Amino acid sequence: MATIIRNGFSLVRKSIFPSSARAIATTKQLNIKEIREQKDGSKLVIEGVTLPSPRAELLVRAEKLTPSAIASEESDVTKPCYLCALELDVKHTDVLILSQFVRSDGCMLPRRVTGLCRRQQKKIGKMVSMAQKAGLMINLTPAYCKKDPRKRKDYKKFNTYFDEKTIFMKRIPDQNDRFKR
Amino acid sequence: MSACKRVQQWATFARTWHIFDCKWQDPYQSAGVIKKYLMGMHKPIYHPLNDCGDVVVCINSREIALRGEDWRRRAYFHHTGYPGGASWTLAWELHNKDPTMIIRKAVYRAMQGNLQRRHTMERLFIYPGEDIPEDVLQNVTNQIRQLRLVPTRLDHIPEEEVKNYPKVMDYPEDYILK
Ligand SMILES: [Zn+2]
Known about the structure:
The complex is a heterodimer.
Chain A: H1 2-16, E1 34-40, E2 43-49, H2 62-65, H3 67-75, H4 82-86, H5 95-98, H6 111-114, H7 118-133, E3 159-161
Antiparallel strand pairs in A: 1-2
Chain B: H1 3-13, E1 17-21, H2 27-39, E2 55-59, E3 65-67, H3 70-73, E4 75-79, E5 86-90, H4 91-97, H5 101-110, H6 116-121, E6 124-126, H7 134-137, E7 142-143, H8 159-164
Parallel strand pairs in B: 1-2, 1-7, 2-6
Antiparallel strand pairs in B: 4-5
Helix pairs in contact in B: 2-5
Zinc ion (ZN) binds next to α4 and α7 of chain A.
InterPro entries (chain A): Ribosomal_bS18, Ribosomal_bS18_sf
Keywords (chain A): Ribonucleoprotein, Ribosomal protein
Organism (chain A): Chilo suppressalis (Asiatic rice borer moth)
């Protein structure tokens, strides 16, 4: 009985919203890279411009790097995403790599944009927040943020480093646990 | 004793002055290294009863880095001796009061607990900043290697280098730049 009701509900919902709420649009979805705003007098012109990606030439991919590696890779298992295939050992201090996965306000991009696998998305996201807490990407922060890490409050103003091993730890061991019986 | 041997004797038992830059260093990890130089354990002539320890000058102790949440989780205990005289100070509060105290306590704890360490600690100089007295600096002849790399901030890297750095991630077709 419950399944019939649930199926009925989902049928009704699907007839109203075809796939998801995002898909409702009166015009064709615009493929835009940059939104430009111009102001001449009292007129405000907002236009979406499709631009070639500035990163296309500098892009590093594992299949381009070594042709011999790809042959061995095909015999083995294929890697779930491009970052796994590169086999980089990224640390939270590698701000030049981490800043590529970040919006201009320092927020981590979602997985549908980055195209990473689940594990790498989690890992990169945690390392981005580590770098932000350590004050290493201070220029990629919201406008209201204090741009000097030393002007932060309380314990946040002192230097902190992080251990990448703690990213996938179930529970970070507490120092006080040593004294428990 | 010949003149040559006499100089060798001086060189063996002379105190060397080492300098250690605490910038972005973990005090608890670097305490193990500083302790070695303070007690003279890096020398082949080391013996606990042999007075062969060196002098270590720590600079930039205000810039030490603690791991993870240690600044707000680590507490320092003190008891005045009177009833109700116990107090717990968090690491960041202690560092606000005295920026040299954390590294001094870390080195003190790293050494074995006998009375000799009070005298060994007298050979440790800690300065919160970079400017140290001239008479201390002119004795220094050796630098202790840092344990951790000092990280570079993104805004300190020139913009041209950030732009031309090899990219790993590319935006999808329909991404709107923000
Ligand atoms: Zn992956």
